[in-house]
Design brief:
Number of helices: 0
Low-confidence stretches: none
Largest sheet: 5 strands, antiparallel
Oligomer: single chain
Number of strands: 17
Helix content: under 10%
Order of helices and strands: EEEEEEEEEEEEEEEEE
Radius of gyration: 18 Å
CATH class of the largest domain: Mainly Beta
Distance between the termini: 30 Å
CATH topology of the largest domain: Jelly Rolls
């Protein structure tokens, strides 16, 4: 997620992200909000010219494949560079790095099961509707056939009735909110995306809503497998 805290408009800024060699078949999408604009999609590494008014954001979602037998760590850095002629009063927050440990795991399929539905209904985890800037813990272990030994789950995440543009970020419970989103959307959109989300030692993940305070979105998650 790239943003502009001001004081100047950043028209023609550059977002760059070199995809690690361990990731193959990388594709990405981008969604602007608050007046931010970017290329809608692309493949491979990101090198995109964007426009960021004060308060504007651009959110990228990158999808790729990593070998199931891969081990070690995976590090990825994204950098935003201001355009020429624009003075940036804070040069310390123009890049962010995410590093993850790779562990070879076995995959087990599950019959598709709705584990989260903030609209209510029969899902084990229901409402209320999620609020902009909210982080909510979601205990997965023991629900929909997910064992307590699961290290990650394979899901389809959907959003509906968002009252503002934004994104949802899913990550292991108790960790810092990541810069990478699981799904992006515009106001009023219903969208879905597939994802693999690590769980914490207690079998929980967390959901963060990257929307303006005072706005809402419903989140629906179906699980179809797990890793252990």
């Amino acid at each position: 997620v790239g943003s502009n805290a001001g004081p100047s408009t950043a028209a023609g800024a550059t977002v760059a992200d070199t995809v690690p060699a361990a990731i193959t078949g990388a594709t990405w999408t981008c969604l602007g909000a608050g007046g931010g604009t970017c290329a809608a999609n692309g493949s491979g590494s990101i090198n995109d010219t964007v426009n960021l008014p004060v308060g504007g954001t651009v959110t990228y979602t990158l999808t790729g494949t990593i070998s199931p037998s891969a081990t070690g760590s995976l590090s990825n850095t994204t950098t935003v560079t201001a355009p020429g002629g624009v003075t940036d009063p804070n040069l310390t927050n123009n890049s962010a790095t995410d590093t993850d440990t790779l562990v070879a795991l076995n995959y087990f399929t599950l019959a598709p099961c709705r584990v989260v539905d903030t609209r209510g209904g029969a899902a084990p985890i229901g409402g209320p509707v999620m609020q902009g800037q909210e982080t909510r813990s979601l205990a997965m272990a023991g629900k929909c056939g997910i064992p307590s030994t699961a290290k990650a789950i394979s899901i389809n995440v959907a959003v509906t009735q968002p009252t503002a543009a934004g994104n949802v970020r899913l990550f292991p419970g108790g960790q810092t909110v990541p810069i990478v989103s699981s799904i992006n959307y515009s106001a009023g959109q219903t969208r879905a995306n597939n994802a693999i989300i690590p769980l914490n030692a207690s079998g929980a993940m967390a959901a963060y809503v990257g929307q303006a305070t005072g706005t809402t979105v419903h989140v629906i998650i179906d699980v179809n497998g797990y890793f252990e």
